[in-house]
Write a structure and sequence with these properties.
It is a single chain. This protein has two domains: 177 residues, Flavin prenyltransferase-like (Rossmann fold), CATH 3.40.50; 210 residues, 3-Layer(aba) Sandwich (Rossmann fold), CATH 3.40.50.10300. The protein has 14 helices and 22 strands. Helix 2 links the parallel strand 2 and strand 3. Helix 1 runs parallel beside helix 2, helix 5 packs across helix 8 and helix 10 packs across helix 14. The longest helix has 19 residues. The chain is elongated, with a radius of gyration of 24 Å. The mean pLDDT is 94. The structure holds ligand PMT.
């Protein structure tokens, strides 16, 4: 997918610039042409000679270099690319992009380009979460700038949190997805996928309900990632604040029974991913609003259908790959393995949802992929990155087995 793609790589001034030589190597291994612009800040971390040697091209630095301007002006530089990748993208360069500043070669190229732009942010966690940076991020997104990462972890400044530049394989995967989408094809083109997401609400009476803390972020991200790989995706979602993902057919439901019905109607599908936090029980409902009285009312529960187990039942029409999520607060891996066996699904994505993990409702998730081949533990990643990795694994499986 990256063969002969022309990537203009802008290297800004962050410690993650030290990952750039490896990024260039991996891009070139895949047949991409890489040309670099190095900012003054970037040059504090990586030398122009290294970038030139690894990219096999000149490393551009100076806006007012007469020789460069006569050979390859900044306008041509910004146009003779299929995509501009800013990695690392510092808070400073993001702010300059938003403001439309053009005070060096990198920002001038970014302002002058008519090509897609992708950024791989990297900075201290407080800088990343600062309202200024978050608002800049939103503005860049509305301008169709693609964003890969950052992920959570130890930061070079000694603090821990969100702000690590996405790892090289994630950046390569994001570029690959971009070109696949751009070309209107991906490894899952022609495959139907069904994804569940969000909580279910189980009414107690006409005004009260039982629910859980699922935000739908993880499930919606899975639906988006599968669609980006070309799958035709139906998302069955409980009530969430998440926007309907682009290019995905969304069916909104409230209760577990409605979710079961919508899923059955969405079949056949080659791929199923059950990320919803489905209520195990519904309340034997009172038709009328319960009245406060002498006695505290006792709720009577009925077991809900298990959607994952139902969709995993062997037989004709069973989806080729069924993936469940396991939300556990103890013995994470063991319980996930048991769930995989009990529900007859192919893979389980196990996540620790104990208090403080942030899995329910948060932006990051730490998961373990449990398959017939064993357990793979992934680092803490943003839910979007978890979804992208999972979608990549699904695509690889589908190409081998379905
Ligand atoms: O929505 P977020 O805030 O982003 O949070 C994401 C998440 C934590 C909800 C998600 O990552 C997750 O773990 N989803 C599964 C939650 C859950 O219900 O887990 P469980 O261990 O209770 O169920 C195991 C599997 O069975 C799940 O795939 C679930 O969708 C499925 N199930 C459960 C009960 C039921 N009646 N029907 C089902 O299909």
């Amino acid at each position: 997918m990256l063969e002969n793609r022309r990537i203009l790589l802008i290297v800004a001034g962050g410690i993650a610039a030290v990952k750039v030589p490896d990024l260039i190597r991996r891009l070139r291994e895949r047949g991409a042409h890489v040309r670099c612009i190095l900012t003054n800040g970037g040059a504090q971390f990586v030398t122009p000679l290294t970038l030139a040697a690894l990219s096999g091209d000149k490393c551009y630095q100076d806006l007012f270099d007469l020789k460069d301007e006569s050979e390859m002006g900044h306008i041509r530089l910004s146009r003779e690319a299929d995509i501009i990748l800013v990695a690392p993208a510092t808070a400073d360069i993001m702010a300059k992009m938003v403001a439309g500043m053009a005070d060096d070669l990198a920002t001038t190229a970014l302002l002058a380009t008519d090509k897609p732009v992708m950024i791989a942010p990297s900075m201290n966690v407080m800088m990343w979460t600062h309202p200024a940076t978050q608002s800049n991020l939103q503005i860049l997104k509305t301008r169709e700038v693609k964003v890969v990462g950052p992920s959570a972890g130890d930061l070079a400044c000694g603090e821990v949190g969100n702000g690590r530049m996405a790892e090289v394989p994630e950046i390569i995967a994001a570029l690959t997805r971009f070109f696949q989408k751009n070309d209107g094809r991906g490894p899952l083109t022609g495959y139907k996928a069904l994804v569940t997401s969000g909580p279910t609400l189980e009414p107690i009476d006409p005004v009260r309900y039982i629910a859980n803390r699922s935000s739908g972020k993880q499930g919606h991200a899975v639906a988006t990632a599968l669609a980006e790989l070309g799958a035709s995706v139906t998302l069955v979602s409980g009530p969430t604040h998440e926007a309907d993902p682009d290019g995905v057919a969304v069916i909104h439901v409230e209760t577990a029974r409605q979710m079961m019905k919508a899923c059955s109607e969405a079949l056949p599908a080659a791929i199923v991913v059950c990320a919803a936090a489905v209520a195990d029980w519904s309340v034997e409902g009172a038709g009328q609003k319960l009245k406060k009285g002498d006695k505290t009312p006792a709720l009577k529960f009925t077991e809900n259908p298990d959607i994952l187990a139902t969709l995993s039942q062997p037989g004709p029409g069973r989806p080729g790959l069924v993936v469940g999520f396991a939300a556990e607060t103890e013995n994470l891996i063991e319980n996930a393995k048991l769930k995989r066996a009990k529900k007859n699904c192919d893979w389980v994505v196990a996540n620790d949802v104990s208090t403080g993990s942030g899995a329910f409702g948060g932006d990051s998730n730490t998961v373990h992929l449990v398959t017939a081949d064993g357990v793979e533990s992934w680092p803490t990643l943003r839910k979007r990155a978890v979804a992208e990795r999972l979608a990549e694994r699904i695509a690889a499986y589908v190409q081998r087995h379905l």
